[in-house]
Structures are given as C-alpha cells and as structure tokens.
Design brief:
The protein has 2 domains: 66 residues, Phosphorylase Kinase, domain 1, CATH 3.30.200; 207 residues, Aminoglycoside phosphotransferase (APH), C-terminal lobe (Aminoglycoside 3'-phosphotransferase, Chain: A, domain 2, Alpha-Beta Complex), CATH 3.90.1200.10. The protein has 9 helices and 9 strands. The protein is globular, with a radius of gyration of 19 Å. The chain is of the alpha+beta class and 283 residues long. Helices cover 43% and strands 17% of the residues.
C-alpha cells in the first residue's frame, strides 16, 4: 500500500482498498463518518468494508477500511482542467449533492447529524458578529488591517438572522474530496463534517475551491437549483467570512502552531474584502 496525503489521518491506498487511521484520543470525526457510511444514498461515497478500534503500542487507534473507488481528486483549484471539463464535473457534483440534500435520515442517524459540531460555519448573524468581535479582541498586535475587520462587519450586517439546519450537507466538499475517472465524478469522500444545514453550505465549498472555474461552478449551481446568482454569491460570501473569522481566531489564539494557517487565511480575507471575490465578475 502507498500513503496518501492527509492533514488529519494516516491514509493508505491499495489496489482494492483504502484505509484511514487516527489516534483514537484525537478528534472523533472519523467515528461520525463510520456511522454515516452505511446509511448514505447508494453510490454517493466509497463503500465501508470494516472499521474498529485497535491497540497499537501504548495508544488506541481508530480505523476505517473502504473499497477503493476508481478515480483521482481534481484537487484544490482544479488546476490543469479546462473549462468544458470543469463544467461537466460541476454538473456531476451538483447532481450528487442534490441526492445528499434530498436524503431523509431517520433514527439514530438523524440524531447524529443534529449533534452539536464546532464546524466553523455560518449559523446566525449574531454568532458571526460575535466571532468578528472576538477576532478583533484577539488581534492584540494589529496583525489584521482594520479595513478587513470592518469588511467582515459589513458582511455580517447583511447576513441572514439565522441559518436553517434543514437538510443533510457534506460541509467540506472541496475538490480534494471528490474522485473523478474518465472525466466523470465517481465518489464524494470524507463525511467527517456532515451535519444538518443549508444547501449553500456545500455550494460554497464547491465554488470557492474551483480556482479559475469559480464562475462556471456558480453558473452550474444557479441553473441546477434555480437560485439567482446574486443570492448564491451572497450566501457564499457570508460563509467564507464566517470560516475565515473562525480560523483566524484559532490562529491568533495558538500562534506557535498556526502561523501558516494565519498567513493563508489573511491572504484569503484580503481577497474576500478588498478584491470582493464573490462579486468581481459582476463589475
């Protein structure tokens, strides 16, 4: 087996299987994915073959073994993918997400998806205001230019009062978590952040991490869901603002371990506020 890059797990890929391993004392999100896997809509993700807890040396490890689905991830930014292919893949992805959004979980799976999860996403206008205020108070060394804080506040002022926890969402469906084979989407992976939310919680990830194809993906989503582009842009903008504020709070609170994240998120915040990322094709 060969190793695959992962920021939170040890992942091993064989000819027929993929194995994810994590220290059981770490986060519990793999448990969530394992519980969900047998109940998700058929054909949406890689089939779960086995999972469990094993003692390894002095610690316990959690593992999950999946059937290897044909394909490779397009990757963040869909680098090297032409516009026609990007549109086709986005159409496939939207269709698969629509199956997820229309899935009706029951019993303990419904309860699992409703469990509180510190996902960093948008929940309410009040929560976003509070996060921005927290960010400003944590920024004791004025690392973040005031115009960017003001920009986050302006986005919060136009945010909906409350997000609805109405449908199952993946909540991490960037292009590193999709598999593509013969120019077709074959699977959506990594359901560790799955929860109840709104469709825009997924449309944001799909569009934001499409690189130069962001406008194409927005067009595909708009046409497939009959959502006006202006509404879709606003929904994505408020979600990006929330994620960036949350991540920057974490980075400022843990400067010794999060300096790289802080730099990346600060660049993204500049793009969001100054370059008006979600609106630049409307000018």
């Amino acid at each position: 087996m060969t190793t695959a890059e992962s920021s939170s797990h040890h992942v091993y890929v064989g000819s027929d299987v993929v194995v994810k391993i994590i220290d059981a004392a770490g986060h519990s999100r793999l448990n969530r994915e394992i519980a969900l896997a047998p109940h998700l809509p058929a054909g949406l993700t890689a089939p779960l073959l086995d999972s469990g807890l094993r003692r390894l040396g002095t610690c316990d490890v959690r593992y999950a073994c999946y059937t290897r689905v044909p394909g490779a991830a397009p990757g963040m930014g869909m680098s090297g993918i032409d516009g026609v292919t990007a549109r086709s893949l986005a159409e496939d992805a939207v269709q698969r997400l629509d199956r997820l959004h229309n899935w009706i979980p029951t019993g303990h799976i419904d309860q699992l998806l409703r469990e509180p999860l510190d996902h960093g996403g948008f929940t309410s206008q009040a929560a976003l205001f509070a996060e921005v205020e927290n960010l400003a108070s944590l920024d004791r060394h004025m690392t973040i230019p005031r115009r960017l804080i003001d920009g986050l506040t302006a986005i919060a002022e136009h945010a909906p009062q409350q997000a609805q926890a109405a449908i199952p969402v993946h909540a991490d469906c960037h292009w590193d978590n999709w598999l593509v084979h013969d120019l077709r989407v074959t699977a959506l992976l990594d359901f560790e952040w799955a929860r109840f939310g709104e469709p825009a919680d997924d449309w944001f990830f799909l569009a934001r991490f499409s690189g130069s194809h962001t406008q194409t993906v927005l067009d595909v989503v708009s046409q497939a869901t009959l959502t006006p582009l202006e509404t879709l842009r606003a929904e994505c903008e408020v979600r990006e603002a929330t994620y960036l504020a949350s991540d920057l709070c974490i980075a400022l609170d843990h400067p010794d371990t999060s300096s790289r994240m802080a730099a990346d998120r600060l660049d993204a915040l500049e793009e969001l506020i100054v370059d008006r990322y979600w609106w630049r094709h409307t000018r």
